[in-house]
Amino acid sequence: MPESTLLFIAEPQSVTSVFSPLKEAGFQAGLADNLAGAINFIKKSKPCLIFTRPVMQGYSAQALLAEAVNIENFPPVVIFSRNGSADEAQRFMELGARDYWLEPLSWEKIKLMLPDEKPSSMPSADQLGAPDKPAAPEQKGTQGRYQIIGQHPAMSRVLGLAKQVAKSKATVLISGESGTGKEMFARFLHHHSDRNYKPFVAINCAALPEHLLESELFGHEKGAFTGAINRKLGKFELASGGTILLDEITEMELGLQAKLLRVLQEGEIDRVGGVETVKVDVRVLATTNRAIEETVKEGKFRQDLFYRLNVIPLKLPALSQRGEDILLLAKFFVNKYCTEYGLSPLAFSEEATNWLLSYDWPGNVRELQNLMERAVLLAGAGPIESKHFLNDPDAWMPEEAHTEGIAPAEEQAANADGVAAEFAVMPISEMEKKLIIKSLDQTAGNRTKAAELLGISVRTLRNKLNDYKKQGLDL
Question: Left, alpha or beta for 382 (phi > 0: left; psi -120 to 50: alpha)?
């Protein structure tokens, strides 16, 4: 069926890693390595998405995109490249590609693009909120990957408002602490709007200096500045007909704020170095983790821009204010990671449950998700205890380290002279090595995840592994 099939045009070894989670989510995957095979598959199987290499021997994605006009309901195309470039990305977007990614293909990103007729397996860290009715974590809630999890009245109010304004063109300002799910609500608004078949484009306003951010937002003409060797379309043009998310809007410089205000008022942009005004039809959403009213009072954010953005205010509560939602989300993430790692279901001990409810969660839902993944990997057969959250990495001791070298009870009893049986003490360095190796085993060699579990940086982990290799350890 169209809503349950994807086509990959690539070498098998570069894409088969996502086939298993696709199947678990209820989708089928097709594979092609040439244009004729791809076109034949598209006509017969009518896939909902295509992921393709830019070019392979005897094949080019440009030729594929050229066929779109000849095939009814041609599916969206995502280009993924080993060594991409901004120029190549722009060229393919202008040719009609939906998106342009760098390798490796990520299941987390793919599932965000899957249609709602088939539920994807789990939402990401930001895909969190509350249904307007209490719902178990594994229930579908508000459609597929935009599942909203929770029961607290504060979240229900925010979600209800989001649903009510989703189909409007009104700008929405989404505020809340880091990790509360602001981008998820932005995607929810886009998905439930009449623009959901058009692009959703997000840009972090804190990630770039002013002159680069202006080019990213509005584009530039060839020769506009040193290094501008080609025309580049900005995010507003790429989001034409759809939605643009301006993340961390309060980090934007005042000069650029004035230009953004004109876009909101007039619906037109000027490319950097350009002489023609370009009309754009884009719905604007913005997020901030600051008290934006205070930023306005300090003169760091334009009051008129604030009013234009704050037509609909959505303020997300901190996780610590959501009561029993903490346990609901914790159980959801534990089930998610038990499934991902092929482990048996795990429950929380009473002590862990009390800890979850008493902790203040400065990192909000994002922190909760990371802690639950860590706990699943360290709890073994369970139950999950608070020590498995690894809040104090220096105090952690693997289960085998508690018992290795300790004499059995029978042997201790045999010491009639009353002297306690000797037991071997494991050096800290050896214990550290065992924990590192165990973490790598449990994360299938993923150093980033292993480092997160250990509470250390990837660089520190890499240095430790290099030391072990010098010691002759085969890793």
Answer: left
Q: Which two tokens stand for residue 257?
A: 């704020």
Q: In what order do the strands lie in the sheet with 283-288?
A: 200-204, 243-247, 283-288, 172-175, 312-315
In angstroms, rounded to a whole number, what is the distance separating the alpha carbons of residues 282 and 169?
9
Strands 5-9 and 268-270, by their bridges, are: unpaired
Number of neighbours of residue 327 by Cβ within 10 angstroms: 14
- Rounded to an integer, the average pLDDT of 465-470 is 82
CA dihedral 30, 36, 39, 44 (to 10 degrees): -70
Placement of tokens 């390595």 in the chain: 33
Q: Output DSSP code: residue 79.
A: E
Q: How far, rounded to the nearest angstrom, does the alpha carbon of residue 180 sit from its chain's CA centroid?
A: 13
pLDDT digits (tens, 9 = 90+) for 126-155: 333 333 322 222 323 333 455 678 889 999
364 burial level (CB within 10 Å; 0-12, 13-18, 19+): buried
Rounded-to-integer distance, Cα 110 and Cα 18, Å: 9
Q: State the virtual CA torsion across 76, 82, 86, 92 in degrees, nearest 10.
A: -30
Distances 92 to 48, 77, 87, 248, 311 between C-alpha atoms, Å: 19, 10, 9, 28, 35
Q: What 3-state DSSP class applies to 29? A: strand
The listed range with the strongest mean pLDDT (78-92, 246-260, 269-283, 439-453) is 246-260
pLDDT tens-digit map of 67-79: 887 888 888 899 9
